[in-house]
Design a protein that fits this description.
The chain is mainly alpha-helical and about 425 residues long. Helices cover about 80% and strands about 0% of the residues. It has 17 helices and no strands. Helix 1 packs across helix 2, helix 1 crosses helix 13 and helix 6 packs antiparallel against helix 14.
Length: about 425
Amino acid sequence: MLTVLDLATLLLTLSALFGWMNQRWLRLPHTIGLLMIGLGSSIVLLLLHSIFPTLGITTLLQDAIAQIDFYNTIMNGFLAFLLFAGALHVNFAKLADQKWAIGFLATFGVLISTAIVGFGMWWVSRLLGSEVPLVWALVFGALISPTDPVAVLSLLKTVNVPEALKTRIAGESLFNDGVAVVAFSVLVGVAVGASAETPHLDVRHVAELFFYEGVGGILFGALTGYIAFRLMASIDDHVVEILISIALAMLTYAISVRLHVSGPIAVVVAGLIIGNQGKELAMSEKVREHMFSFWEVVDELLNSVLFLLIGLEVLVLAFDLSHLWLALASIPLALAARFISVSSPRFIRSLRPTFGRGSVAVMTWGGLRGGVSVALALSLPPSDYKDEILAVTYAVVIFTIVVQGLTVKRVIDRTIDPKLL
């Protein structure tokens, strides 16, 4: 049994080694390179294990990876820091200009996509003979519909898009997790109830839950962010102010979970306050430089480990070749749902002008999924459909990060007016 220190050492060492390999030979975007090398290494190790089962290296690494609770590591660990770090760099004034479009995409957009993917997977699975029940297909729709803030914010660092479009993509990815997690939790509850022949879905209760978690998260994040802002404004010490920011991210997320409000939304709001009002009114130039440098390092470090973990997780997942066709069919299905969900605001007259030429294409192809979707899939309770949903989730995540992540620049070049870049 490896200790926490042993696991951290293993992951950081592999991140450093694979990062060096990527920079030395592949020269891909850092996180995509780590995922591809991790995934490639996993496949090679599994092949070696099948040929030389007594070698032991694969088993040793499998045992180490199996000790990591992916769901808790991401949802109750990394996510708070990554969302806070991402929100620090988002301009609040520009975000406010896009508030209605972002709000629509992060709420109704997720629900529209959930419905399209769910009904689509249910229909396709029947054609392919696997017959995933509708409620479990909708569970998959909920966990795969939100764009992953970690993957999306990492992508935005590597491409050049108009500022308004960048703000909309970043804002949507930062806020849609909270809605998706609530939808996922509700649908899992219905699915488990349906399995027990006691299905129950109270639409009013679900609407109240969405409102309570969403608005509660905004208000609580605003409260903790304001308190931290006042504390920072009263001193001028970069070490203490960085400590306050760390405590802010951790406490906001941890207490939100216990208050049953959206932790992701609360952390994003707190990060926006510190990254905007805090940056301008509570920090000296020296503190500002240290603060943003620190969180940039945290962001890159956790990003590296997360994408490496996504690649290495293949070592401990039980994939069945019978799931292959459904997994392949889910990729165009997820893309179609994404296209329809990001196109839908254009049917609202007041939002139509905010979607310029090429916006829908870039938002569709740049809507990456990542660790959050994998974590939610891994958290599913045991059922006859968990392995199938996990395989389909992994297929979509790998495709969006590797294929879409590496080709989104071409989509931007072909669809966005160069004068706007």
